């Protein structure tokens, strides 16, 4: 007769284990050092928890992923800090994880640890609105807040406005983003990609890690440095359009260009 708590008859050692558990009382732990236990756990989790319990696709988000995890989960780039360097590094991380086959990726906007600043959070809201996984997230210790809506109440409406306008553009682009994720699922494409993916014959694109693209159409050139008033961007030889709050215009020049800080969202070209 099978033990109803161990229907697959996984080996049980009954060795004593010591440690704190919550809630207190008798408890059992699967022995994940055994391959049989690992396989049992994976099969039960995948088929029972994700499918049978809810009848819907499960939402899984992890920071402990590996190549091919993207078929099951998204990835956030860990407990970062409210630093300009961490914001810049998130662009590289986003590009890397798309290459790893995990396109649903993003960093904690404005930083998870430490206290952010209005200038940093403004730029991060502009950038983070275009992470595939876009989330403003902080540990909350010490009472520090960085919710986009709060900044207008504490004397920094420019942060709230940047978040609002950037997210508005994101929502306008959501149908395109959904299409990119469908192609990622069916064809294995990247969602966010480096510029050289679309312009592989242009050597000027090979070292670009401060700009990124959504698919083959949208190019982002965010502000990533403190006190930065213009972006030294590169527009490959192509036809580019520049959207603003009220209109779209044809860009007359390609190559290396300087983009001024005139928009409430990051510089975008299509």
TrEMBL record:
Question: Which residue range or ranges hold the Glycoside hydrolase family 31 TIM barrel domain?
Answer: 54-180
**What is the superkingdom listed in this entry's lineage?**
Eukaryota
Query: What positions does the domain Glycosyl hydrolase family 31 C-terminal occupy?
Result: 188-243
Q: Which residues form a coiled coil?
A: none
Keywords (A to Z) from UniProt = Glycosidase, Hydrolase, Signal
Q: Tell me the Gene Ontology biological-process terms attached to this UniProt entry.
A: carbohydrate metabolic process
Q: Which Gene Ontology molecular function entries are recorded, alphabetically?
A: alpha-1,4-glucosidase activity
Q: A single Pfam family, by name?
A: Glyco_hydro_31_3rd
What family does this belong to? Belongs to the glycosyl hydrolase 31 family.
Q: What is this protein called?
A: Uncharacterized protein
Q: Identify the taxonomic lineage of the organism of origin.
A: Eukaryota, Metazoa, Ecdysozoa, Arthropoda, Chelicerata
């Amino acid at each position: 007769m099978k033990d109803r708590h161990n229907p697959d008859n996984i080996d049980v050692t009954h060795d004593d284990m010591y440690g704190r558990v919550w809630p207190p009382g008798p408890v059992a732990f699967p022995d994940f050092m055994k391959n049989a236990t690992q396989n049992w756990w994976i099969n039960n989790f995948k088929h029972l928890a994700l499918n049978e319990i809810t009848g819907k696709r499960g939402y899984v988000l992890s920071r402990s992923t590996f190549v091919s995890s993207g078929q099951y989960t998204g990835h956030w780039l860990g407990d970062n800090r409210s630093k300009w360097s961490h914001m810049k590094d998130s662009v590289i991380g986003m590009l890397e994880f798309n290459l790893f086959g995990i396109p649903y990726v993003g960093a904690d906007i404005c930083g998870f640890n430490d206290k952010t600043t209005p200038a940093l959070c403004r730029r991060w809201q502009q950038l983070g609105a275009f992470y595939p996984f876009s989330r403003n997230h902080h540990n909350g210790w010490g009472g520090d807040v960085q919710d986009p809506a709060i900044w207008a109440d504490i004397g920094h409406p420019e942060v709230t406005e940047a978040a609002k306008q950037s997210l508005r553009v994101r929502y306008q682009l959501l149908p395109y983003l959904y299409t990119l994720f469908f192609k990622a699922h069916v064809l294995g494409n990247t969602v966010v990609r480096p510029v050289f993916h679309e312009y592989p014959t242009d050597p000027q694109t090979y070292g670009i890690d401060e700009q990124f693209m959504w698919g083959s159409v949208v190019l982002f050139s965010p502000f990533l440095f403190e006190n930065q008033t213009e972006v030294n961007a590169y527009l490959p030889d192509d036809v580019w359009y520049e959207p603003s709050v009220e209109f779209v215009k044809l860009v007359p020049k390609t190559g290396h260009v300087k983009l001024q800080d005139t928009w409430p969202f990051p510089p975008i070209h299509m």
